[in-house]
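Exercise 7. Given the components listed, write out the predicted structure of the assembled complex. Treat all entries as one system.
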Amino acid sequence: MSDPDKCMTMAEAVGRFIKPGCHLSIGGFTLNRNPMAAVYEIIRQRIDNLHLYAHSNGQGVDELIGAGCVRAIEIAYGGTGRFAPTCIRFRRAVESGQIHFEDYSNYHMTLRFMAGAMGVPFLPTVSGLGTDIIRKWGFSPEFREAESRLPREKLLVIDNPFRRQDDDPPKVVLLPAINPDVTILHVQKASHRGTVRISGLTFADVEQARAARHLIVSCEELVEEDDLRREPDGNQLPFFQVDAVVLQPYGAYPTACYGCYDYDPEYLNRYRQLAGDDDTFQDYLDEYVYGVENHEQLCRLVGPDRLRQIKAVKPQGYAAGLDRR
Amino acid sequence: MSDPDKCMTMAEAVGRFIKPGCHLSIGGFTLNRNPMAAVYEIIRQRIDNLHLYAHSNGQGVDELIGAGCVRAIEIAYGGTGRFAPTCIRFRRAVESGQIHFEDYSNYHMTLRFMAGAMGVPFLPTVSGLGTDIIRKWGFSPEFREAESRLPREKLLVIDNPFRRQDDDPPKVVLLPAINPDVTILHVQKASHRGTVRISGLTFADVEQARAARHLIVSCEELVEEDDLRREPDGNQLPFFQVDAVVLQPYGAYPTACYGCYDYDPEYLNRYRQLAGDDDTFQDYLDEYVYGVENHEQLCRLVGPDRLRQIKAVKPQGYAAGLDRR
Amino acid sequence: MDYTLREMMAVVAAREIRDGEIVFCGTGISMLAAMAAKHISAPRSVIFFETGAIDSRLEEIPLAVADSRVMYHTALNGGLADAFATMQNRFTGSRVVGILGAAQIDPYGNLNSTVIGDYDRPQRRFSGSGGACDVASFVGRTIIFMRQVKGRFVEKLDYLTSPGYLDGRDGRRRAGLRPGGPELVVTDKAVFRFDEKTKRMYLAGYYPGIAMDEILETVDFDLDYNQAVPIPAPTGKELLILREKCDPQGLIR
Amino acid sequence: MDYTLREMMAVVAAREIRDGEIVFCGTGISMLAAMAAKHISAPRSVIFFETGAIDSRLEEIPLAVADSRVMYHTALNGGLADAFATMQNRFTGSRVVGILGAAQIDPYGNLNSTVIGDYDRPQRRFSGSGGACDVASFVGRTIIFMRQVKGRFVEKLDYLTSPGYLDGRDGRRRAGLRPGGPELVVTDKAVFRFDEKTKRMYLAGYYPGIAMDEILETVDFDLDYNQAVPIPAPTGKELLILREKCDPQGLIR
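Answer.
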């Protein structure tokens, strides 16, 4: 239990591990458990040229793209549920040719993280045969050649070498592994040492975490290692996989954190409006991101009333009856 | 919640799903959570010619082999910890040529179950390159040809098609999927519908369960579906993957069931002695397996004192201070 | 007309879900349909999200498949890897009905949810596959929601995101995909099915008050409409289920 | 001599474990060594079992890696898939030291735990690989326990279960394996290491009271013994740790 304390502030964690050009993945899914405090800190520190690996990490990805931090993205889904069926800054960046992008399916991306986590060069699936996800590659050969960390092939289709029965798949798609420099998660509980407990759906967080060279975990609550070990079956990541632990209440805000708080419909609706135009989006960043020093200040800016409205109730784990129009 | 009740006796479950020649895998690991009530029932029903898929499912596998139920086995480890560093009837069956067998590593077998669970024909690893596990195949070409459900190749080594960097693996081993006809697990809790909660290590149980066409689950405790849903994060298998639920207290005995009872050193030591000789092993079967009608009777035969000695204490989950010599 | 077209769509799809099926849902109307089915025709159907939630107790309608509302009182809270494996799995996958939506559909039920225009520099970018390509590749059958407007029913997709019957007939088999494919397309005006042999789309039904021309003028390919029959409007009971049990806040309606 | 040879072996191995390392253990003496290391040289080392238990609080010595005793007060109770992935993982795997045992070892540290004699119809069958082949393939370095008796140190294995340096030098690389391989062989009489270049085993040390011949007569291959030094006996403190903290019931001793 004498491991070094891995606790630090978000500014320190981002400053220490996330460098311009770095290959990054963030946890969460669309409007839940995005590590937003980290996302906003990356934007504030104006870290750019990021290479992002995303499945459906909606809000966080969209804000990183909008703020100009992202050079290239490999992605399955750029959307934030009903608040933005297509993520707005993502859409604009693609349509205006501002970023390199390449499309996969959610399972493709999950398998790619899993492969990285497992330490194998690829994993197989039968998803996507016959589609343009397989035929059309987003990155140019020149881009791939220059980025020596990318595989030369987006993916490969091979004959199933074990085929014996008629109903055995004749072909499989091989998806290359991803090993990000850094993965950032936001979770409900972690210890000083870094043992992690996620409540509710884990999405692809565990795979993303294990695939990465470095892992930053922000948490709603910092708990004693012993507390987590009383029910170890509920823990997802052992301390030795974690590099930095950041105590960050409301660290997923304005996305939800199951059991703690809901997404903020007001924030997300306002974001949609402001993100629709380059000028108003700049206003948004100036006020909500650059205009505050840290996530605590953002929370103060939106105010305690709003945070109270989205507070999760038991046993549901979300803000029952919240006005979500 | 109106699903048909899947509860039945072990005799019914085994009778209904396990047929001679069937491809079977059992859960647990060496001396923990082996579905022993099911194993003994299979022996009593004299179901033979089984094709077993095992990683390190010690005691259960050894008794099935000893009782003559097994025609062929694919296995990573035939041992039961300190009680039998090499499983005794397994060893004898191999040395005397009584069964077909083929060796893998534990990860190989885990990946094979995972592949079956994921619905892909194979999964890759870098384990085993340069070893006899890869070079020497246990099943003869004739055996493989006759068993149309086996892959034609034990495994395959291919060049890594994504290799770009020097430290990328040059080759990978592809392990073919396993899809048993039936998997049998013993767990701590299940509902009438079949939702499953395992406490402690899950071994490869979840993968084995999902790979199988049919799943029999025996449990220490039958609980309300609602109870399990109050903390769904702790559940491992949804009801729709389960075909039969058997309430079977001490269903893993004489192996352990974390949180409920320990392994029984006296039984396992006695087993080791009796299993060492064909005649005394027959005596063992006659007394402990054929000599009882069901698992409840076996538990009565060993007696309440013994069961009391191995009762697990909290918070440890095993019988602290148990004499294990 | 005392119901919205979105309500009509949800009811039409809900009626198609069979009891005991595992229903893969996305956001929005597909979730409404799956919720309604449990009250209409398929009480033992299981709602299933790609995020890993199984058989959620949906007391409020989720606004995304990652909404915390899908995590409550489930049989299991897993992750993406589990969810997609359940669909790719040869035993469970065939029991899944997937409900999908898209920006474009072609005569063989292939879907585009990625781009309009050139892939590299599109006129209009959409969200991309998400789990749609996976679901369409894996599961026993799919139901597809579309808006019945010009430019959506096209001869050739700008991007084939999710496989239907590919180029028809045994196209799935030839590509290496499993059986499966779309069974039904539900729009705000009509219902389409696929010919058993050719796997080409035909008009199977139209909603009360919809003229045939309103449908045909939005479809850019040759369409057989001789088998089309009128589709009954939602019953009072069905509407009550939608409005009171599924979406009392009217978030989807 | 106030200690058993098994105690000596456990102490010798424990001394080699570095602080902060993740220690993969099997049953028996390897577990004793890993437990002792936490009290001797490596308080922050992490005991790790292939069954998926991480950093167990071992109040009693487990008799198998699946013993419920490994599941208590862990950082995590996973499964086999997690455990092996942690070792195969390029970032965590290199931080793992594996402790293995075997029935036979060859000059390049390759191990046999499968059969003596012909594979198909062996004279003597052992347990087989278990996780040993995986660990030997994946991790940064291994420590191997052997009994120093005739027939165990052989020129050629009857079956190569777990890779050491294969045929020596860059044999691992040529086979497609990662760097790694055995660093130390610990027996009940001596300690062996591997030449940096040739990767061939040499005698590195011998225990108090052991004559060189006792060692050499059990080794069936040419062995360099010129670098051998005496190995200090377990200290009183080390023995106390073994007997009082690790295995008070004497189950392994």
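Discussion: Chain C touches chain B at residues 22, 43-44, 46, 54-55, 57, 71, 73-77, 85-86, 88-93, 95, 138 (CB under 8 Å). The radius of gyration of chain C is 17 Å.
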